[in-house]
Each structure stands twice: as C-alpha cells, then as structure tokens.
Specification:
Elements lengths: L1 H13 L3 H8 L18 H9 L5 H10 L5 E2 L13 E8 L4 E2 L4 E7 L4 E6 L3 E8 L2 E5 L5 E3 L4 E4 L5 E5 L4 E8 L8 E2 L5
Parallel strand pairs: 2-3
Antiparallel strand pairs: 1-2, 2-4, 4-11, 5-10, 5-12, 6-9, 6-11, 7-8, 7-10
Helix pairs in contact: 1-2, 1-4
Length: 193
C-alpha cells in the first residue's frame, strides 16, 4: 500500500498538485484495514485495457498491476440508473469507507467502461480528478462537454453538477474529495431530487 500511495502522490505532483501529493502520502504510514478480491470480473478486460493505456506513468501502472488483486473495488451503496449499473467501479483507498479509515479526506481510483454515460450528479465534497488512461468527455453544470485526456487534472466545486461519457476506451482516473466527504450528500439526476 505504501508503494501505491507514493506512486499516486508522485502522479498528483507531476500534474501540478503538490498539495494533494502531500495529503496522499501522509497516509503512507497507515496500514490498510481492508483488503479486497480484485477488480470485479465483468470489468477485468476494461481494467487491463486502462492499465495498458497508461503509457508514460509506468511507476503507478506497475504498482497497480501488482496490487490490483488486493484492492477493494465497489459500486458503493447509492442507487444508480439501470443504464449505469455494472459499468463502473471505484476504490476508496482512504476515506470513511476506505481501505484506510479517514474522516478528513477521501481518495482513490475510478474505472468506467467504454461506451458509458455517467449521468449528471453532484455532492458537497470538492472533487479533484486526474485522468490516468482513456479520453472521456466531461461536463460541468450546463456547459458543453470537454474532452479530457490522460494527464489532465481538474476540479468540481462543491455541489457542481458534472457528468462523464466514455467512447471507445475505458477511463481510469484518480479522484480526491475534500470538505464534506460524506456520500450522504451525493445526488444523481433522474434518481434523486
């Protein structure tokens, strides 16, 4: 886990977010309290393709390949539209439900299958993303979609609506929540008021 957190911290720093690197690497001294059984079977091909597409970030790719089976992948407990179920998964490395417990920040990995729309949603946490693999279109509020490529980092403000669409390749990204990190504030268009 320490090697993974160091690699994630270095990846955030390379994208110009030394502050997030420092927050991530602060957890490197902690021991994981949970271990998983790896990527859900229906997403293994997408995860493999996403890792293969990481290109320049060989350090993080190598660590993810070696630790993939011990990470806790989940779809969480929120109700999702039928069209999105089974088409994504995430790892909460640190956070309230994370492999390492934290009530201050929450961060991890996000995987979305190709040809998938993650509908507009919002939450109180400020959310940072860093694309590791796969080009996807991202929308904020009612603005036009913007293509985000590997290496691009961006932020969603608290309660800012955002959506993600993948096309011919899966998306693998780092995410980081700050502020009110409770998933009880998460809402998704078409499901929640």
């Amino acid at each position: 886990m320490r090697e993974l957190l160091a690699a994630i911290g270095d990846t955030w720093a390379a994208a110009g977010h030394e502050d997030l690197r420092d927050l991530v690497t602060d957890f490197a001294v902690a021991e994981a309290v949970k271990t998983g059984s790896g990527v859900p079977q229906h997403l293994v091909a997408d995860y493999s393709a996403a890792l293969a597409g990481m290109g320049v970030n060989q350090q993080l790719r190598g660590v993810l390949e070696s630790l993939g089976g011990s990470l806790v992948w989940s779809e969480g407990g929120m109700t999702m539209p039928q069209s999105f179920r089974g088409r994504y998964s995430y790892v909460e490395l640190a956070g309230p439900k994370g492999m390492i417990a934290s009530d201050v920040v929450s961060f991890g990995l996000y995987l979305q299958k190709s040809e998938t729309v993650y509908p507009s949603h919002w939450h109180e946490a400020v959310e940072h993303y860093l694309v590791l693999s796969g080009t996807a279109d991202w929308q904020m509020d009612d603005a036009p979609y913007v293509s985000r490529r590997p290496g691009e980092a961006f932020v969603h403000a608290s309660n800012q609506r955002h959506a993600t669409t993948t096309f011919d390749e899966p998306l693998l990204a780092l995410w980081f929540w700050q502020g009110n990190i409770s998933d009880s504030t998460y809402r998704i268009a078409g499901v929640d008021p």
